[in-house]
Amino acid sequence: MRAPGAKAFPDAETVLDNALSPIEAIRAQRRRRTAATEAAALRRARAEQAGTAHSVPQLGRTA
Questions:
Q1: What is the pLDDT along the chain (63 residues), one digit of tens a residue?
Q2: Cβ contacts of residue 30 below 8 Å, gap of 6+?
Q3: Any residues with CB less than 8 A from the CB of 28 and at least 6 apart, and which?
Q4: Read out DSSP for the chain?
Q5: Would 62 be classed as within a structural domain?
Q6: With contact defined as beta carbons under 8 Å apart, do 53 and 44 qualify?
Q7: Has residue 59 been placed in a domain?
Q8: Range of 24's domain?
Q9: Total structural domains in the chain?
Q10: Full-model pTM
């Protein structure tokens, strides 16, 4: 009877070790957003240098 209970309620230490803290989750999200913005800026700059700036899709603001 203990085996199903162990799956339903894992040890708190195991859960805490694997989960990101709220501040770390926010930092990871911010890093992903920054990387996406930087990649879009590089694509735009390369397109402008190549003279094909009109064919670059523009990202909409979501926040």
A1: 566 666 677 666 655 566 778 999 999 999 999 999 999 999 999 999 998 755 545 666 665
A2: none
A3: 20
A4: -HHHHHHHS--HHHHHHHSPPHHHHHHHHHHHHHHHHHHHHHHHHHHHHHT-GGGSPPPPP--
A5: no
A6: yes
A7: no
A8: 2-51
A9: 1
A10: 0.51
